[in-house]
Amino acid sequence: MVELNAICSSTVQLQCLVVKHASWNNPEEITLPLLYIKRLVLHLKGESVSIREMNQLMLNLPDLQHLELVTKGLLDMTDGQSWEKMTRSLLTFNFKISVCMDWIEDIVESFRTPFWLEEKRWFVACTWDSLYSVPYFSDVCANTYFRPPLYSSVTDEALFCDHINHFILNESPKQTRYYFRHIKKLEIASSESLEMLSVFIDMSSIECLAVSTLIELSKIQWMLQLMPRLKKLSINTQVSYFLQKTHNIRLECIENLEINDSLLNNNDYYAVERLCRTFPRVENLCISSLQWTGLIPRVIERLKNLSNVTIYFKKLASPQQPNQLQEIGTRYIQTIVGEARHLKHATYSYRHYWSSDENQTSWFCCHCWIQRKVPEAFYQKHWPLQRGYNYYRIDHFLQRNFFLKLLRPFVFQSSLGFSVCYAMLSPFGRWYAPLIQFVCSAAIRNVLRRIGQLQPKWNLGLCIYMQYI
Predict the structure, then answer these.
(1) How confident is the model at residue 458, as a pLDDT?
(2) pLDDT computed for residue 257 by the predictor
(3) Please, which domain of life does this record's source organism belong to (predicted)?
(4) Does residue 258 lie within any of the structural domains?
């Protein structure tokens, strides 16, 4: 923590400080008052912290308003009354203290005072090995066995449910006591009782769907109708079966597609066709198998919106061949790039890497970024901007009145008008455009002058047109 003094002494106006993975060995080293710090995020490791040491730290933070603390602590760190004295001036206080406890109910009771529940509305929950703020450090993932913490100062259990954003349906739910209103990701590991999902989950908030089991087409269609915000789909089962079930529907809402099926066949062009037909608007594709590497260029060519492809896999490499995985990855990258050279409307840029851990488990990952070649239209290449603006302005003027519309075919679609437009737009015609424009404009001006004599109120518009030709 000596570095903390050095940082604060060189940045005297510092108001927000985030310190993570810091060692808490000698808190007496912090002697410099941090006068302007308003927000402090402190994640500590190493020795357990005592309440006396935290009190000393708080005395050096006179202007602190927001505190986030994650640390291992002694038993006195679970005293609600001691924290009440130190945190009265704070606006927000979120903590997670790892400590072994015996009398859990007595600890939670010290956080049920009017200061915690009414004045600050800071709630806590407690297990046998940790004390944490609710809902800030509550679980964000739940399954069908979900139960709120047994010991907490929360008066409404809906506070735990509203913090859940990832739900795993691992078996048929036995009860529907809890209702989850903010689920962003739904993972289906069991197809039993899917019709009960809408009873305890607000399906309209789901943005990501992960399918880990075989599901009938009728149930898939039913779920999609209840998920208007669905953008991402993760297929963790047999992709061939899923595509077979969904071959009659187009999932145009899916922008991010993830396929976790190691049984993909590199020669299965029919699966590629069904994939591109079922998901025509995919922008990000993630595949966890290298067997589809040869088909990636074909997928890119069919999916016009595709801009990012990620290929990864996990393999157990032997200690005698540490570079085996890198050689495999390089070979597959060369295959992708070699096939991609034949594409006419897309170009590649890629990056790949591999890593391993102490268990000799290696991961290989390749990211491919795709840039579409958008061909320029003829008028974008050879039509100056001002001339194009004049063209549409004249066309708009001629469509304002019935009689003026009669002139539009003569001006724009006759052979005379075509010659003028071609001379203006063609890069070769620019050399002789002034001559053609002079001859044709004289003829058109004579016609428009006679029309202007018949209808004087059109004189202004005709003058504008004659000015541009």
Answers:
(1) 43
(2) 95
(3) Eukaryota
(4) yes
pLDDT for residue 43: 92
Q: In terms of residue numbers, what domain contains 280?
A: 231-375
The answer to whether 230 touches 207, Cβ cutoff 8 Å, is yes
Residues 70 and 132 in one domain: yes
Rounded to whole angstroms, how far apart are CA atoms 357 and 324?
15
Whole-angstrom distance, CA of residue 228 vs CA of residue 373: 32
Cβ within 8 Å of residue 341, ≥6 positions away: none
pLDDT at residue number 46: 81
**Same structural domain for residues 126 and 22?**
yes
**Which residue in 227, 234, 231, 165 sits closest to 194, CA to CA?**
227
- Residues 156 and 205: their CA atoms lie apart, in Å, by 22
Q: What is the pLDDT of residue 379?
A: 43
Tell me if 460 is assigned to some domain. yes
CB 45 within 8 A of CB 25: no
Give the model's pLDDT for residue 319.
43
Lookup result for tokens 């594409």: 343
Burial of 420 (0-12, 13-18, 19+ CB in 10 A): buried
pLDDT at 205: 95
Of 353, 375, 397, the residue that ends a domain is: 375
> Mean pLDDT for each consecutive 10-residue tract of the chain (469 residues)?
67 85 65 80 89 90 94 93 94 95 90 95 94 95 91 92 94 80 94 86 95 87 92 89 82 92 67 87 86 75 85 59 62 68 63 66 74 55 50 64 63 47 46 51 54 45 41
Are both 29 and 134 inside the same structural domain? yes
pLDDT given for residue 296 in this prediction: 78
Q: Is the same domain home to 353 and 429?
A: no
Answer whether residue 181 is part of any domain: no
Q: Is residue 389 part of a domain?
A: yes
pTM of the model: 0.70
Euclidean distance between CA atoms 157 and 148, whole angstroms:
7
- Whole-number pLDDT of residue 344: 58
Q: Are residues 123 and 236 in the same domain?
A: no
Tally of domains in the chain = 3
Burial of 332 (0-12, 13-18, 19+ CB in 10 A): buried
